[in-house]
Design goal:
This protein is α+β, with helices and mostly antiparallel strands. Helices cover 59% and strands 10% of the residues.
């Protein structure tokens, strides 16, 4: 148990990090393959109640291209068929991706529906792996819940937190790569102190809360967490591969 939250250190374990990342990457691959339904197709489904019921409680994602967006970007948007396709647009400066909004402000906005049941199922498995990682570092359920409460975060954000910590011990990873991929995935650099601590082999409870506060502000529902984590891991993988 964390008897002193300001002093207790979370010690990295390479095997534990590897187990977590392996599990997360498997679940993320399944999640990214989930098919999304465009607004026109969703409208057609209204004539088939049994089909539409499968989308009950679906997550809504809107993609808005910037004025003067390139034909390549517009083609990417028109080709969206899965969550992976949406993730590929995540770092495109020519688009704005919003979660939970069904109102199209203009005719250029594309609206997609994601079956929330499938997303939640995959996220729950990743949340359990994130908790297992924290349990092994002597965090209790009470510690985890207090950390989430202080940060104003949800259990989905645990996946983000542990993903950042687990990647900090990967062979070939430098601080420059980490910061670049954090900035690309999360869009901010305020994680520097916490991730530097993790890269050094230890993380304070307070720094973990700081990470959660920072990321939970930007990340919306579970699908937002999944896309950001996927973007971060993909960035790390590709960068390390290219520098070898």
């Amino acid at each position: 148990m964390l008897t002193s939250c300001n002093k207790k250190e979370l010690i990295e374990d390479e095997n534990l990090s590897y187990d977590f990342l392996s599990s997360v990457e498997t679940n993320l691959d399944d999640l990214m393959s989930i098919q999304v339904i465009g607004a026109d197709e969703m409208e057609k489904m209204s004539n088939h109640p049994s089909a539409k019921s499968s989308m009950f409680g679906s997550e809504i994602i809107t993609i808005t291209p910037a004025q003067g967006a390139s034909s390549y970007t517009l083609t990417q948007i028109n080709s969206v068929r899965s969550i992976r396709d949406i993730s590929a647009l995540n770092n495109n400066d020519e688009v704005t991706i919003d979660f939970g909004s069904a109102t199209a402000s203009n005719s250029n906005v594309s609206v997609f529906h994601v079956p929330n049941r499938d997303v939640i199922s995959n996220m729950q498995r990743m949340i359990m792996e994130a908790k297992r990682y924290l349990y092994a570092q002597s965090f209790t359920d009470q510690d985890i819940q207090r950390m989430l409460m202080e940060a104003g975060a949800t259990e989905d954000d645990l996946v983000t937190l542990v993903t950042y910590l687990s990647n900090s011990t990967r062979p070939g990873l430098t601080w420059e790569i980490t910061l670049n991929c954090l900035s690309a995935a999360v869009g901010i650099e305020a994680l520097e102190t916490a991730v530097r601590q993790a890269a050094g082999g230890k993380l304070t409870f307070r720094a973990a809360v700081s990470v959660l506060k920072t990321t939970s502000r930007r990340l919306m529902p579970a699908i937002g967490v999944a896309i950001t984590v996927y973007s971060f891991i993909s960035c790390i993988d590709s960068t390390i591969k290219n520098v070898r």
